[in-house]
């Protein structure tokens, strides 16, 4: 009996010893620099916000958070590196909707499973889009546009920033929700859309707000509506699409943090708390306002539910538009 007890005590002690390093690692995290993978090239709004979040985490958690830009395949290359990485808290993903929600609906094959391989941490911010019209457009409101488009299907051109982009699928969602038909004109990015909208080669555009807000304020183009769930502080007089009568319409880019599945819960909690604290500061409000973004925050469970709702919303739209890569 005594021998059996001794063996049992020895086994318990051994198991406790094995568990100690893991607990100590989680409690002392971060003890070295953390890599924040941004799955898009440097320079755009995604990169700017990612670097702002990295700086905030560095300040709050006492170790440097280093941005690693790994662009390509709609964000899948960078996201794959994190999804298949070691779940020790030292590699995190700063993601847009593509890698964690929309790409699975458009790409024939995915190198990872976003739901199984990535662990949600926090939803940081949303970036609504805007429907704009050329300066001499007969449409001064979205209601006027919808009425004309119903009577004249496919007669209006709308510029979108590339096939499969958020601007493209937002145009498709608008047409589905308002029961109208527009002609999508895909461009390679924002700059040529702005050029043609100013020149009158296209009637409308749907794109992220930041490049268009100055043009609206200068009277060079007309803002018909924004696509978020609430009005933008950048243009508070411009209604949301829902306010114009297209019920429950919401479309925006969103930015979130995720980790490889299996990352210690203590790490998830620390990062979540640090980001939520930062989102309450004047500094974060300034950063987001400069890019016409809206703060979010919340729990990992909130982000998980939001991702699921985005997949459910965009799945039928992308399938009906036959967008596939």
From TrEMBL:
The lineage's top-level taxon is Bacteria
Signal sequence range: 1-26
InterPro entries named among the record's database cross-references: BUG, Bug_dom1
Which UniProt keywords are present, listed alphabetically? Signal
The protein's matches in Pfam families, at most eight in alphabetical order, are given as: TctC
What family name appears in the similarity comment? Belongs to the UPF0065 (bug) family.
- PANTHER family per the record? BLR1237 PROTEIN (PTHR42928:SF5), TRICARBOXYLATE-BINDING PROTEIN (PTHR42928)
Question: What is the protein name given in its UniProt record?
Answer: ABC transporter substrate-binding protein
Supply the source organism for this entry.
Rhodoplanes elegans
Its ancestry begins with: Bacteria, Pseudomonadati, Pseudomonadota, Alphaproteobacteria, Hyphomicrobiales
